[in-house]
Specification:
The complex is a heterodimer of chains A (about 150) and B (about 450).
Chain A (H helix, E strand, L loop, with lengths): L12 E2 L7 H9 L7 H14 L3 E3 L2 E2 L2 E4 L6 E11 L9 E10 L5 H13 L2 H9 L3 H5 L11
Chain B lengths: L1 E5 L3 H12 L3 E6 L2 H10 L3 E4 L5 H6 L7 E4 L4 H15 L3 E5 L3 H5 L13 E3 L1 H14 L5 E5 L4 E7 L11 H7 L5 E8 L2 E3 L12 E7 L3 H8 L10 E5 L3 H13 L2 E6 L2 H10 L4 E4 L5 H6 L7 E4 L4 H13 L4 E5 L6 H6 L5 E2 L1 H13 L4 E7 L4 E7 L21 E7 L2 E3 L12 E7 L3 H8 L7
Classes of the chains: A alpha/beta (about 150), B alpha/beta (about 450).
Chain lengths: ~150, ~450
């Protein structure tokens, strides 16, 4: 892992998404991740969304899925000022989208990462800080390192 | 959800109507401005006039924000190309194309990640043909639909006067069927469709739908007092050898029936004779009673009217009834005829439009919902879903589970066995469930099957 200081590295953060739909903002967020097949990733994530929205309320969504060619979980974040309709459980538009992609192995590491992301984003102070942040680095610093990373 | 529908014909406009009920934002594209105006006047959709596969037209229709594209113009190639354009230029995640040509439909390898980017091909003609053959195989039932990879069958029929089922309450029905997995999931009395409860009493003349272990279909048909498929060769007459007629004829040949196909167009009849193996093809008019008599219509086990003209199909079916053909199937495209047909006493009809709309809706819901079928006048739906880990439906005894009103779990496929649930049955992960629910409760039912965040 090259950058183990945060779950979401600064170069995988977009502060002013202009996307106007759920699939568009997911595609845009996936585009922030280097060296993955964006079409495949989008297909996998959208397939998972059909089973139940990952919009967990309070303007947060954590769409996720598995990609066989990954070695470790990777995450990217898009921030959207106006908010996007995401079929979220509270019906509210989503302002912070974190895409999490995990390897297609048996390990439970991805579940820990997902739980960590959800716990972090459930804190109102973190959400506020993300919405107010002026640089990607500031957003990245709000997230803990990946679970099990020896930093 | 943003949906782009290409083609404002019967299929396109009916899908649009259904999607609006679900709260989708719908844009309809067609070349015909008059047709668009009519649709725009009658429902809350945006319309765009233009050639459906052109990038500029798709862009105007908002393809960039579309979650789903349904290409349902009358032109196969336009539909397929539109999916490619939507995929390559606008990254539309899900694409459904209507394709008529059997040669394309057959070759599944045409579609895929590195091939044509079409997630689902729908073919009203092929679907209608499959429905015809399905019903033929359980000839005396008015309607048959398969779920759970064919392990669960939904049979619809009208209870005949001297049936064992007449006068039986639903609670007693369970006893009558002891040892067999059969469960009544929908009941029609005086043209009112309902999901039945324990004290519902079945009367002669009522219609019912029952979900059952596919191996027990004949047990149910026996109890209902309707004849089921006897052995021996059956004779079938098909009127109309067009798209659907040809596919039906091929499938009938495979079932080993003695088949006569009557086709009006001489050139088409010639083509059919060349492309069918055993069927006798006759060039002639399906309404010509002399011809029908000559071809022994009176000795047929089944008569199937499949021309592209509804009126011809209805009249031909009435003629067949005059000759007391035991099983008559009528293809009807236009929904306005459906009540009329019941009054004429023609029970078994096939509507390509309805079947197609059902299929499309099932695919849109795919994931949570694996199959869906509209009953009667469309007020009830029977659907199949897989219970996935983390969903709300798991592990609660059904008597305590908060199902939406009038919703009934008909049958469960678990570890290869079909079970009829009881109050103390709890759903387990990976159960395949067939349930009946009013259309207005569909979304609430879907919610029960939604997975939670931690589902990866």
């Amino acid at each position: 892992m090259s950058d183990a200081s945060s779950l979401i590295p600064a170069d995988a953060i977009l502060l002013d998404s202009q996307a106007s739909s759920k699939s568009a903002i997911i595609a845009e967020t996936i585009g922030l991740l280097p060296s993955i097949d964006p079409d495949q990733a989008l297909a996998v994530v959208m397939e998972r969304e059909k089973l139940g929205s990952t919009g967990i309320g309070h303007g947060i969504a954590i769409p996720h899925g598995r990609l066989p060619e990954l070695d470790a979980p990777v995450a990217a974040l898009s921030r959207h000022r106006q908010g996007v309709d995401f079929d979220a459980i509270d019906g509210e538009p989503v302002h912070i989208v974190v895409v999490l992609l995990a390897p297609a192995d048996e390990s439970k590491a991805h579940l820990e990462t997902l739980a960590l992301l959800a716990r972090t984003l459930q804190q109102p102070s973190v959400r506020r800080a993300i919405m107010e942040a002026e640089t990607p680095e500031a957003v990245s610093a709000l997230f803990p390192p990946p679970p099990g990373a020896d930093s | 959800m943003n949906v782009l529908i290409l083609g404002a014909g019967e299929v396109g406009s009916n899908i649009a109507r259904r999607l609006l009920v679900d709260g989708a934002n719908v844009v309809v594209v067609d070349r015909d401005a008059d047709l668009l105006r009519r649709i725009g006047d009658s429902m809350d959709v945006k319309t765009v006039c233009g050639h459906a596969s052109l990038p500029s037209v798709l862009e105007r229709a908002g393809a960039e924000d579309a979650d789903l594209l349904i290409a349902a113009t009358t032109n196969d190639e336009v539909n397929m190309l539109a999916c490619q354009v939507a995929h390559s230029l606008f990254k539309v995640p899900t694409k459904i194309a209507r394709v008529r040509e059997h040669e394309y439909v057959q070759r599944e390898e045409l579609c895929g990640r590195d091939d044509l980017p079409i997630d689902v091909i729908i073919s009203p003609e092929t679907e209608a043909a499959s429905a015809v053959v399905r019903r033929f195989r359980v000839a005396s039932a008015a309607d048959v639909q398969e779920f759970a990879d064919g392990r669960i069958t939904l049979v619809g029929l009208r209870i005949p006067p001297k049936s064992e089922l007449a006068g039986v309450s639903l609670a007693d029905f369970g006893e009558l069927m002891t040892g067999h997995a059969v469960n009544i999931v929908a009941h029609e009395h005086n043209q009112q469709w309902r999901v039945p409860s324990g004290d519902t009493v079945l009367l002669a003349g009522d219609a019912v739908y029952a979900a059952m272990d596919s191996r027990h279909v004949n047990v149910f048909l026996d109890a209902a007092g309707v004849a089921h498929e006897e052995g021996g060769r059956r004779s079938v007459m098909v009127v109309g050898g067009g798209h659907i007629g040809y596919i039906v004829a091929r499938k009938m040949e495979a079932l080993g029936v003695d088949l006569k196909v009557i086709e009006y167009d001489e050139a088409r009849a010639h083509w059919l004779a060349e492309h069918l193996d055993h069927a006798v093809v006759i060039a002639g008019n399906g309404l010509d009673r002399e011809l029908l008599e000559e071809e022994n219509i009176g000795e047929m086990d089944a008569f199937i009217a499949l021309t592209d003209d509804d009126e011809t199909n209805i009249l031909a079916s009435l003629i067949a009834r005059k000759y007391e053909v035991p099983h008559i199937l009528t293809l009807v495209n236009r929904s306005i005829y459906s009540d009329l047909i019941k009054e004429l006493g023609l029970e078994a009809t096939i509507s390509p439009r309805l079947t197609t709309v059902s299929t499309v809706m099932a695919h849109i819901r795919k994931g949570r919902i694996l199959g869906m079928y509209s009953l009667g006048d469309g007020t009830l739906e029977v659907l199949e879903a897989e219970a996935l880990e983390t969903s709300d439906i798991l592990d609660v005894p059904l008597s305590e589970l908060k199902l939406p009103k009038e919703t009934l779990i008909g049958a469960i496929l678990r570890d290869g066995e079909v079970i009829i649930p009881r109050g103390d049955t709890a759903i387990r992960a990976h159960d395949r469930i067939v349930l009946a629910t009013p259309s207005r409760s569909l979304q609430a039912v879907e919610k029960l099957f939604e997975v939670h965040l931690e589902f990866f």
